TrEMBL record:
It is found in: Cell outer membrane. Residues 62-210 form the SusD-like N-terminal domain. PROSITE patterns: PROKAR_LIPOPROTEIN (PS51257). Coiled coil: none annotated. It comes from Prolixibacter bellariivorans. Residues 334-587 form the RagB/SusD domain. Its main location: membrane. GO terms for cellular component: cell outer membrane. This is RagB/SusD family nutrient uptake outer membrane protein. Gene3D superfamilies: 1.25.40.390. Residues 1-22 form the signal peptide.
Length: 587
């Protein structure tokens, strides 16, 4: 029974144990009690799987529409409301509090009880190995949820303290004290590191089958055999948490803590963040291990790789992903009207302007060769891969999409499902999906929870801040090396004269931030990146109106954020319940 099938048992777990639905409100009692888990391994595993099912990385949020990268034509979109002045402690689409603490409650319960569970009745040392694996996954998932909580709710109080969230390492019950104060951000970060250390101690680097007893780790050598080891730690369990994924989570935590928004309240240094990212990258050979198709792992051109993935296996770009499924939801939501789509996510002119020319120079640089009368010519190839512009071809038949006013329903503001900016999103879509009602099809998709490109960009950012553009630390490659490889992979003309012209940390920082913006667009990073960098969050979303070949640029949507909104709020209802909880400044 694979993980997806095991999730069925969650239907029986919805109200099990106190505090799981809301960490401040005990849930109703179910008919099955705690004692049932000790002799029923599947029931016990439901506690752990509740952590997996609550991960927010199982789908694309497209919270990019709350930034300067995109808007949406969906008037009911929660991120649109948020970005245009309705974000509050009572209305927070970015809230992770309820789900995060519910998951942590389940994980704390399984960590407390797992030693008592009869995980296996057959096999050599299998009960003990299942117990170890459960602990490793639970510690790692608890750390990941704490990261999401810190990202969404960590912040400075009005009296100048950087706080995180309450640290919970024991399951709560009806007799527990729910009126808990927030721990400091630093204490939360250190707790995450402790949990990640524990997770690495129990988990293999990857879940892969072994072929001989010599490959059994020392911890289990002489206690089990190949068959039983593979039963617990073999390839059948791919896409569960591993030590490799744990290392990547650590890199995420460190880059967050070292960033300008938080580093005055933590002890995490940029060099720490660089080292943590490098520990992941060194496993694939550093820069030489960068996947050649890493910028378009989802695309039709890589359909053979997607369609041909063996059970649980990853392509070279992807470190952790969801299950593969046959669907066309992304295309239905984001194709333009002429392809029977809703055109929901509309890239901004801001984002389009961020793509350099093919020679690598920003369009504002005199050496770029940018022609404002022919703005899409000779651009960085990523622009055409990620954004549909006027005259682009898209869809299974390569239809031409005209965003110019007055030509088709794909034109600016033509109908309710038309673009509001003059652009449509292309990234993440498989263009062999056909939505024509006469010949509709589906194709295989998955969501990349963590890509290696993200970790490369983490390293480049941290290494530049720690050691400058060319400093290598102890890893043998620099921020410049990483950015050079990413830009060459993207199709920037070589030699990359613009990159070669950059000599200062400050200029390299601007380039790294921009490369991150391009490489990770529409994957839910921009909202958090702007805030942790303390860069402008109020730049209005711009668009283009094309009429008879003339280009007119204007503001499509203003961003109504205040300075205190670099940090999200503690939910208002939680503040009402627990007077020991302090709100972040401004909320």
């Amino acid at each position: 029974m694979n993980m997806k099938k095991k999730l069925i048992i969650l239907l029986a777990m919805a109200l099990v144990f106190s505090g799981c639905q809301d960490f401040l409100s005990p849930a109703d009692e179910n008919n099955r009690g705690l004692d049932d888990i000790y002799g029923d391994a599947a029931f016990a595993e439901g506690l752990l799987l509740n952590g997996y099912v609550r991960l927010p990385s199982g789908s694309y949020s497209f919270n990019d529409v709350a930034t300067d990268d995109a808007v949406t034509n969906d008037g009911n979109n929660q991120y649109l409301s948020m970005a245009t002045g309705q974000w509050s402690a009572m209305n927070n689409p970015m809230e992770e509090w309820s789900s995060g603490f519910a998951a942590i409650q389940y994980l704390n319960r399984i960590l407390k009880e797992t030693d008592k569970v009869d995980w296996a009745t057959t096999g050599e040392y299998t009960k003990e190995m299942f117990n170890d694996r459960t602990k490793g996954e639970a510690y790692g998932l608890r750390a990941l949820f704490m990261y999401y909580l810190l990202q969404a709710h960590g912040g400075w109080t009005s009296d100048g303290r950087l706080l995180g969230v309450p640290i919970l390492t024991e399951p709560l019950d009806a007799k527990s004290d729910f009126n808990l104060p927030r721990n400091t951000f630093e204490e939360c970060v250190q707790q995450i590191y402790k949990d990640l250390d524990q997770a690495e101690k129990y988990l293999p680097l990857d879940f892969e089958d072994i072929n001989s007893t010599s490959e059994i780790p020392d911890k289990y050598a002489g206690k089990t055999n190949v068959s039983d080891y593979n039963r617990v730690f073999g390839a059948y369990n791919r896409q569960r948490l591993t030590a490799r994924i744990v290392k990547a989570i650590r890199a995420r935590v460190s880059i967050l803590a070292a960033s300008p928004a938080f580093n005055q309240g933590t002890t995490v240094k940029w060099s720490d963040a660089a080292d943590d990212a490098a520990k992941v990258l060194d496993l694939i050979g550093g820069v030489s291990g960068m996947a050649s198709n890493g910028g378009s792992w989802y695309a039709k051109s890589n359909s053979g790789e997607i369609d041909g993935l063996s059970a649980g296996a990853n392509p070279a770009e992807v470190l952790w992903r969801t299950n593969v499924s046959d669907e066309n939801t992304l295309e239905s939501d984001n194709y333009p009207p002429s392809l029977y789509g809703e055109g929901r996510v509309n890239p901004t002119q801001n984002l389009v302007n961020a793509f350099p020319m093919a020679n690598g120079y920003p369009i504002t640089d005199a050496a770029s060769g940018y022609d404002p009368n022919n703005p899409y010519a000779n651009r960085d190839p990523r622009l055409n891969k990620y954004v549909v512009v006027n005259g682009s071809s898209e869809g299974p038949g390569g239809s031409t999409v005209y965003t110019e006013v007055g030509k088709t329903d794909d034109g600016l503001d033509a109908i309710s499902t038309s673009t509001r900016t003059g652009y449509y999103m292309r990234k993440l879509l498989r263009e062999d999906v056909n939505l024509d009602p006469v010949n509709t099809n589906t194709q295989k998709h998955y969501v990349a929870r963590i890509r290696y490109t993200e970790i490369f960009l983490d390293y480049a950012e941290a290494a530049n801040e720690a050691w400058g553009p060319d400093g290598e630390g102890t890893h043998g490659y620099s921020a410049r090396d990483v950015i050079a490889a990413l830009r060459e992979r993207a199709g920037i003309s070589q030699p990359d004269d613009y990159l070669a012209s950059i000599s200062t940390k400050e200029d390299m920082r601007k380039l790294i931030h921009n490369e991150r913006r391009l490489e990770l667009c529409f994957e839910g990073f921009r909202f958090w990146d702007l805030r942790r960098w303390k860069e402008s969050i109020t730049d209005p979303a711009q668009g283009v109106r094309i009429t008879n070949g003339n280009f007119q640029f204007s503001t499509v949507e203003k961003r109504q954020y205040s300075d205190y909104m670099y940090y999200g709020p503690i939910p208002y209802n939680e503040i009402l319940k627990a007077n020991n909880l302090e709100q972040n400044a401004g909320w």
